[in-house]
């Protein structure tokens, strides 16, 4: 009877086509040992660690039928951060190299395989699902979602790395990644270009927290010039990297969060990317900001949360975000569009000079807010310079009408420190003319009083301390 039960148990797993490779820190790019659902001894043979957390990595669609180069990089980074963990790579390469719609449909079966594997671990070894974190890329994100929806108990976390868009953008929750699939679902959207049904990455939010780096449409360093450089360096073998550059950036941002623990990238909740571009969303109140990647704060709201941030073109991706607000005074009513400016920030630790930005519109006697960001940790701000650049093309209107705005103050808020600083013109007000030299602003003596109780006392103390200094 006993024998009959064992064979029956193994029969239950006969339909599983996906393979579960337990990678090792020593050989993150080799499949040296497979965990086989139904075969109890495979866990011992592969040295599965029953007391540690388990990461399950699920790849996406593949043209070549081989693993892409990011897989060992992610495995390696997970082990560097969590040396005792189990990093399992799900191999569904045969199903993943069909025509895209066929592979997309296979995510249901892959998800079922993964769910059966996880349920087996939970039932046979009492392995706690609170220790399970699924990481799925592209089609793999939806396979992870389906797996999470099918397990008898909920897994702890699913991270969707640019979940695939085509055939999933308008799909119902059960067949794609959704917030119900784990206790916590966080998603990175890095390649959401074009009309929704044509976008490589899914555009709509599908997790508890959905982060759209650089607006989610296109990532810095993924342009044609970069592609030509890649081809020059590595030949044509990596041309597919160009197509995948923005899509795959989701993975590298997550790897970055594992490797650069001390430099977490901050993302900010915002209703639209247009509002974010104006710097209007750099608040951390009420969970409005969060870490991207591994150390995300688990916030589960009733409605999903869209978050935005800027990044650099390479690792470490972290930048520092600032909102700048300026009121342009003018004796005559003038409106100009798409004006190029340079701003330089000087702080206690470092400086960042000539950050270029364009204001879509500048008008007399109006206040404008915009976002700037820098790779440099400037520390506390002390001074800034503002310059109105000449247009790159020759323009008669600028030739005939030399015009100046006057600016008295520049308000700056740091996203990363949440500090607000007001800068004053040294002369009471500064002229800003197109193509002329930069206007200089220093920290005003009277800084804005904090609205909290006791803020006024604190501010006056600080001011008297500053003045006596």
From TrEMBL:
Enzyme Commission number, as recorded: 3.1.1.34
Composition-biased stretches (Basic and acidic residues): 459-469
Family: Belongs to the AB hydrolase superfamily. Lipase family.
Keywords: Calcium, Cell membrane, Chylomicron, Disulfide bond, Extracellular matrix, Glycoprotein, Heparin-binding, Hydrolase, Lipid degradation, Lipid metabolism, Membrane, Metal-binding, Nitration, Secreted, Signal, VLDL
Pfam family, one: Lipase
One GO cellular component, as annotated: very-low-density lipoprotein particle
UniProt record, GO biological process: triglyceride catabolic process; very-low-density lipoprotein particle remodeling
Binding site for Ca(2+): 176, 181
Domain of life: Eukaryota
Region span, Disordered: 450-469
Subunit note: Homodimer. Interacts with APOC2; the interaction activates LPL activity in the presence of lipids.
Organism: Coturnix japonica
Reactions catalysed according to its record: a triacylglycerol + H2O = a diacylglycerol + a fatty acid + H(+)
Location of the protein in the cell: Cell membrane; Secreted; Secreted, Extracellular space, Extracellular matrix
Protein's job: Key enzyme in triglyceride metabolism. Catalyzes the hydrolysis of triglycerides from circulating chylomicrons and very low density lipoproteins (VLDL), and thereby plays an important role in lipid clearance from the blood stream, lipid utilization and storage. Mediates margination of triglyceride-rich lipoprotein particles in capillaries. Recruited to its site of action on the luminal surface of vascular endothelium by binding to GPIHBP1 and cell surface heparan sulfate proteoglycans.
Listed name of the protein: Lipoprotein lipase
Topology relative to the membrane: Peripheral membrane protein
PROSITE patterns: PLAT (PS50095)
Transmembrane annotation, as ranges: none
InterPro entries: AB_hydrolase_fold, Lipase, Lipase_LIPH, Lipase_N, Lipo_Lipase, PLAT/LH2_dom, PLAT/LH2_dom_sf, TAG_lipase
Domain PLAT: 320-443
Post-translational modification: Tyrosine nitration after lipopolysaccharide (LPS) challenge down-regulates the lipase activity.
Active site positions: 138 (nucleophile), 162 (charge relay system), 247 (charge relay system)
Gene Ontology molecular-function annotations: apolipoprotein binding; heparin binding; lipoprotein lipase activity; metal ion binding
């Amino acid at each position: 009877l006993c024998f009959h039960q064992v064979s029956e148990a193994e029969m239950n797993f006969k339909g599983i086509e996906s393979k579960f490779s337990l990678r090792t820190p020593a050989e993150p790019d080799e499949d040296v040992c497979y965990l086989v659902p139904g075969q109890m001894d495979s866990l011992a043979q592969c040295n599965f660690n029953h007391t540690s957390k388990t990461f399950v990595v699920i790849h996406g669609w593949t043209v070549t039928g081989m693993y892409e180069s990011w897989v060992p990089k992610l495995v390696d980074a997970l082990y560097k951060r969590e040396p005792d963990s189990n990093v399992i790579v799900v191999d569904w390469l045969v199903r993943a190299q069909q025509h895209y719609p066929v592979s997309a449909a296979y995510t249901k079966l892959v998800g079922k395989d993964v769910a059966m594997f996880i349920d087996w671990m939970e039932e046979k070894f009492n392995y706690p699902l609170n220790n399970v974190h699924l990481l799925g890329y592209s089609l793999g994100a939806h396979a992870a979602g389906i797996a999470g929806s099918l397990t008898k108990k909920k897994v702890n976390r699913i991270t969707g790395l640019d979940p695939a868009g085509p055939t999933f953008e308008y799909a119902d929750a059960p067949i794609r990644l959704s917030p119900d699939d784990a206790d916590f679902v966080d998603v990175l959207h890095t390649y959401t270009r074009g009309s929704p049904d044509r976008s490589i990455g899914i555009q709509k939010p599908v997790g508890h927290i959905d982060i759209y780096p650089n607006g989610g449409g296109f990532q810095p360093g993924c342009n044609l010039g970069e592609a030509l450089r890649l081809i020059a360096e590595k030949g044509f073998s990596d041309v597919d990297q160009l197509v995948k550059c923005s899509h795959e950036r989701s993975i590298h941002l997550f790897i970055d969060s594992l490797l650069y623990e001390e430099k977490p990238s901050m993302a900010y909740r915002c209703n639209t990317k247009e509002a974010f571009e104006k710097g209007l969303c750099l608040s951390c109140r009420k969970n409005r900001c969060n870490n991207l990647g591994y150390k995300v704060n688990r916030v589960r709201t009733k409605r999903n949360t869209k978050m935005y941030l800027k990044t650099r073109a390479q690792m470490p991706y972290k930048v520092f975000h600032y909102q700048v607000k300026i009121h342009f005074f003018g004796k005559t009513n003038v409106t100009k569009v798409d004006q190029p400016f340079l701003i330089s920030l000087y702080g206690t630790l470092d400086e960042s000079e000539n950050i270029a930005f364009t204001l879509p519109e500048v008008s007399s006697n109006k206040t404008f807010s915009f976002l700037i960001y820098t790779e440099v940790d400037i520390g506390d701000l002390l001074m800034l310079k503002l310059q109105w650049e000449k247009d790159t093309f020759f323009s008669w209107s600028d030739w005939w009408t030399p015009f100046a705005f006057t600016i008295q103050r520049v308000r700056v808020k740091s996203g990363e420190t949440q500090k607000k600083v007001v800068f004053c013109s040294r002369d009471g007000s500064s002229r800003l003319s197109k193509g002329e030299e930069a206007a200089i602003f220093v920290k005003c003596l009277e800084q804005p009083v904090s609205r909290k109780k006791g803020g006024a006392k604190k501010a006056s103390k600080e001011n008297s301390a500053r003045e006596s200094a």
